[in-house]
Amino acid sequence: MQPRPLAAVAVAATAPFPPSWAHQVRAAATQGDFLHAIALFLRMRAADAPAAPRSAVPASLPAALKCCSALGLPALGASLHALALRSGAFADRFTANALLNLYCKLPAALCCSPSTDDAAGESLESIRKVFDDMPEKDPVSWNTVVFGYAEKGRHQEALGVFREMWTDGCRPNSFTLSSVLPIFAKCSDVRKGMEVHGFATRNGFIDDVFVGSSLIDMYANCTRTDYSVKVFDNLPWRDAILWNSMLAGCAQNGSVEDALGIFRRMLHSGVRPLPRTFSSLIPACGNFASLLLGKQLHAYVIFGGFDGNMFISSSLIDMYCKCGNVSIARHIFDRMQSPDTVSWTAMIMGHALHGPAREALLLFDRMELGNVKPNHITFLAVLTACSHAGLVDEGWKYFNRMSDCYGIAPSLEHHGALADILGRAGELEEAYSFISKMQIKPTASVWSTLLRACKVHKNTVLAEKVAKKIFELEPRSMGSHVILSNTYSCSGRWNEAAHLRRSMRKKGMKKEPACSWIELKNKRHVFVAHDKSHPWYERIIGALNVFSEQMVRQGYVPNTEDVFQDLEEEQKSHVLCGHSEKLAMVFGILNTPPGTTVRVMKNLRICVDCHTVTKFLSKIAERDIVMRDANRFHHFKDGNCSCGDFW
DNA sequence: CTAGGGTTAG
C-alpha cells in the first residue's frame, strides 16, 4: 500500500477541517484498525455532521464495507448496501466492488437470509445480483467474483465466470490466476493447472509471487513436486510465503528431507521463518517419526519465540506422540493457556495410542467440562482408546454420545472403530452383526478389523466367512490373506494355509517385508527381517542368544503362533530370532549407555513372541523400551507392557 | 475495492 501524501494534502485542503472524515476512515481501515474505522464512519453518519460533506459517503463506503467483511458484520453490511443504493454510491465501481467482496467473504452461516435454511445459496445469489446490477465492471469486479465462488467451493460457477470474463473482453491477470489455480489444486487437475501455467508464462505473470505460490501449491497437490521445484527455482525473488509453499509441498508429499532442505536454504538466504513454516514442518517430522529432528525443530520454535502459537503447539504434541515421547507431549499440552479442539484431540489420541488408554478418556471428560467441543476426529481418538483398553460399554456410550449430544453422524471410520472394540473384546458375533447392519456400506478395512479379531480369538469358522466378504470387496488384500492363513496355521489346518499361500503366489502377491528402525546419534538404522548382510547381524544374534538363556531360566517359551511357515518348532524359533524388531531393539541396547530408553519403530504389527521377548528384555537389560508398531505404541518396563498384553 | 502458504485419524 503506497502512501499518497499529495492526495491527502489536497483532500485536507478542501475539507472543512483536516483531515476529512473519509480520509480518516480510509486510513484506519488501511492500517487494519477495522473497529476504529467503522466507529468513525458511524459517528460521521450519526452526527449528520455539517462537517461531513455529501461526498464523504461515497468516499468512505468502500473502506467501511471492507471493515464489515473483515469483522464479519452482515447486518451492518446490508444496511450499508441499502445506503449505497439510496445515495447513488452504488454507481461508483469501488463501492460496488467492495459490496461484492462483502458477500464473497461472509461465511454462509453469517449471511442474513430470512429463511436461514439456504444461507449458502442466498450469498451466491447476492453476489450474482450485485454483479449483474453493477453499472460498470472492471477487472477487480471479475476477479472478486471468481475468487468468491472459488472460496465458497462453487468451482464450476467460478470457472464459468472465468470464461465469461474472457468473452466479455476482460483479460485475466495475476489476481484471477491465483484464484483459479487453487481450484485445480483441490481437484488435482494437473492438465488444467498446466494450461493456466502456460497462460501465466505467455502473459508475463510468471514472476508474480502470488501466481508462483499458487502454482507451487497446485503442483504439490497433484503430487508433482518436481514441477513445483521448477516454478520455485525460476522465480526472481522469493518471499517467506513462497518458501513456505514449497516447504509445505514437500512436507505434504512425504519428503521430510526435501522439506528440511528448503528450510535450511530459507534460513541461509536470511528469510525469517513464519509460524506456518513450523506447522508444516513439524507434522512431517512426526510422520517420519524422527524424535531427533523433532527435538531440533522444537528448540528452534522456542528460541524463535514461536511457542504460544496454537497450531505449532498442537503439531508439537502430535509429533512427540508419534515419535514415542508422550510425556513431553503432555508437558506441552499442560502448559497451553487455552487448548482448542485440535490440541485436545491430538493429546487424547496420544494417550490412546500409548496407553494407559484410561488417561485418554479422563482427558475427554475434562475437555467436555471445559466446554471445548469435540469433533468427529476427537471421537475417533476416544473410540481408539476404548478399543485399546477393551472397554466395550464405554465404546457404545461414546458412539451414541457423538450423535446424541453433538449431532455428529458416525462415519465409516467410527463404525470401524466400534467393530474393532467389539471384536478385540471377543464379542465376535456381535461385531459381525453390527457390521452387517451398518447404514454405510462396510469396506474391506472395516471387515478386516473383525478378521484380525477372529485370528486373536481363534474363531476359524467366522474368519472364513469374514474373509469371503473381504475378498469380494478387495480380492488382492494382502493383509487379509496373511491373517486368514495364520488363522488356519494356528488351528493346525496346514493344508488350507498352504493352499492359500499357493494362491497368493499365483496371484503374484508378495508380503510387505517387515522392517524396524532405530535412531542413534542423528542416524537412522534400518533392520529388515533376517538380513544377515547387516554389519551388526552376527553380534546382535550373539547377544540375543545370551539374553535368551537368561530368559529361558525365567520361564520364557518361544511363541511360534505368528510364524507363517510350516516348520519344525526349533526352526520356527530360529525364524523368530531374525524378526526385525528384535534386531533393532538389541542393536539399540548394545549401542546406548545403560538406562537409556530404547525407541524402536516397526512398519507392521509386533508379533506375539517379540512382545514377550521385549517384556523379558526390559527387565533383564533394565531398559525402558518403547516400540511403535503399525497399530500403537508399546511401553515396556520391568517386564510389563503398557498395552496390558491386549493389542 | 480483488489474490498465495498451516495443526488433529487411518
UniProtKB/TrEMBL annotation:
UniProt KW Repeat keyword: yes
Annotated keywords: Repeat, Transit peptide
Source domain of life: Eukaryota
DYW domain segment(s): 555-647
GO molecular function: RNA binding; zinc ion binding
Example GO BP: RNA modification
PPR repeat feature ranges: 138-172, 239-273, 309-339, 340-374
Cross-referenced InterPro entries: DYW_dom, E_motif, PPR_At4g14850-like_plant, PPR_rpt, TPR-like_helical_dom_sf
Pfam families: DYW_deaminase, E_motif, PPR, PPR_2
Keyword Protein biosynthesis belongs to the record: no
Protein name: DYW domain-containing protein
Taxonomic classification: Eukaryota, Viridiplantae, Streptophyta, Embryophyta, Tracheophyta
